[in-house]
Specification:
single chain, 324 residues, Rossmann fold, seven-stranded parallel sheet, five-stranded parallel sheet, 12 strands, globular
Amino acid sequence: MKIAIPDDYQNAVRTLDCFQQLNGQQVVITREHISDPEALAARLQGVEALVLIRERTPITEALLARLPDLRLIVQTGKRAPHIDIAACTRHGVAVIYAIQPQTGRQSATGELTWGLILAARRFIPQEVASMKAGHWQSTLGRTLHGSTLGIFGYGNIGSQVATYGQAFGMRVQVWGQEGSRARAQADGIEVAASRDALFRDADVLSLHIALTEETRGLITADDLAKMKASALLVNTSRAALIETGALEAALRAGHPGYAAVDVYESEPVVDHPLLHMDNVICTPHLGYVEKDGYEALFGAAFDQLLAFATGDRTNVANPEALAQ
């Protein structure tokens, strides 16, 4: 079987132990992101199966029309807004969602979130750069103990970050949909008096909301304007949760005073306004990108791919495609 794994930015998949599962298969891995469907199709000619890394590679009607040999897409992760499922079905391309097993390895995004909070509050990247340039102690950071951590969205990652906040002696407050608030109360976590209060009172506000059509643009310029001048906004979820352009404008206005961001509207990023702001720490969507998580995620994906190759159609999300 000819298999392609596009957008492997770090050329990491070959280094995984689970990659040995594909021994004997013809595997093509590309590192560079190709946005033009025609150019991408030229690179993927003859490919029978695609293994997609999260949401990096859009699968559109225009692309599928140029890939007559494609029969299977295995998507790592359960969310796939970048895949046109209806078009896949029309073209007879089966789609399988390979979901990472429920293990302790799913803590990657929460850990990165906490790393960004520590780095931003103590200006660690700035101080490292300053010291390498020959300077000594150029900033004055803030501790976390005794300050307020606001968490918007209390799911698996939000609850993990809340636990970290408690361990650091922070007052933790949660807001979100009714389910989030109920889960927080059940865990003994304080629920903010209101959405406005969450933005107004938080010294650190971390977003942990799934991106859907309902949550797109959920965080508005008015929300951000309520934040303290000393506050830090952290986004390791999705950029589109924040109204377009609102974060950049709010940071220039000084409310909030700081941000730490791991996600962007269009990725990979070549340039972005946030990269040019001294009060922002930017990382290149590292939240889920670490070896243990990759082993689990790609191990599941390769298992599903090989099962399909032997005739197992159990996990196909669009079984109508099999009739094409």
